[in-house]
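Batch manifest line 334
LIGAND: NAP
JOB: complex structure
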Amino acid sequence: MKQAVIEGGFGLDRVVWREVEAAAPGPGQVLVGVRAVSLNYRDLLVVKGRYNPKMPLPRVPLSDGAGQVLAVGEGVTRWKAGDRVAGIFMQTWLSGAYEEGHGKSALGGAVDGMLSEEVVLGAEGLVEIPAHLSYREGAALPCAAVTAWHALFERRRLGPGQTVLVQGSGGVSVFALQLARMAGARVIATSRSEAKRERLRALGADWVIDYEAVPEWGKLVGKAGGVDHVVEVGGVRTLEQSLAAVRPGGQVSVIGVLTGLAGEVNLAPVLHKNLHLEGIYVGSRAMFESLNRAVTQAHLHPVIDATFAAEDIRTALGFMESAAHFGKIVLEIR
Ligand SMILES: NC(=O)c1ccc[n+]([C@@H]2O[C@H](COP(=O)([O-])OP(=O)(O)OC[C@H]3O[C@@H](n4cnc5c(N)ncnc54)[C@H](OP(=O)(O)O)[C@@H]3O)[C@@H](O)[C@H]2O)c1
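JOB STATUS: finished
ARTIFACT:
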């Protein structure tokens, strides 16, 4: 059985395929034949050693994968051979509030991930993928879609007629746009590319702003009435604009670090506008299951920009690094 590992140091050229012995599921475990995996910006940080420079190597990368149950270990009743499943991002966060320690079970980071022909996971660490989705589409969900779902529906539930702002056209933001439209919300988006702005409009964004041409886009949005909720993926250099864009009493979900983690931010609007500023770290299995029910009901399909063969993982990571993609990047394993 073949699996990819980050080995001998960090960098795209340190992701190598190796032949390993096929594992058998132990008690309470499930053997999954992985059919597709997807990339998240975090995977790029992991591979480059910027996520955790002290991560023990070798490590199987990628948090997101979907496949078919091949066999179950003793005592497993949740699954049977043939079931179509995806791994949950943090294997121990099943429901309730986030607790210290769940991060230690994050696939493709703290523990081995999904870029492998077969994986053995705990029976609790899987969800069924919606019946109308392919393995490629199912593999797009575990990190980006669950994160967007968590931000929009699990803290303060987004309702019809509210307005959401999403930043750029990556995995999390495109899911947030789709889910917000599904809930009857209005969406304002930002993107630096006219071609991507066109695609964002086609997905239902009402107003799309070029954040490079209009660096004070947050003030512009605020003056035009503001938004109820910002799905903040830009990080330290976009947060002030997000705080300017949101209405009094509104919500800013702090998710991403595309422009970096540390820097100076004027927090005055958080107080003066009585904002809800909240951190989001993917989500629990229960959130993933709620997302799947909504995706099924709405017959929603993830937006997949490109599909690579798994062997071409370095090329796929390079494509993500170029930020030329729109939505998700997927790799097929067989
Ligand atoms: N907290 C969590 O649990 C969690 C979960 C998932 C992701 N994240 C984080 O969220 C961020 C997005 O992840 P992703 O996987 O969706 O990334 P991605 O697919 O790589 O998204 C990249 C896109 O973001 C946009 N972008 C880059 N810089 C921007 C800026 N200054 N302002 C606005 N948009 C900008 C660009 O869109 P355009 O080309 O259209 O401009 C770019 O194509 C990353 O920082 C990731 O680590 C966090």
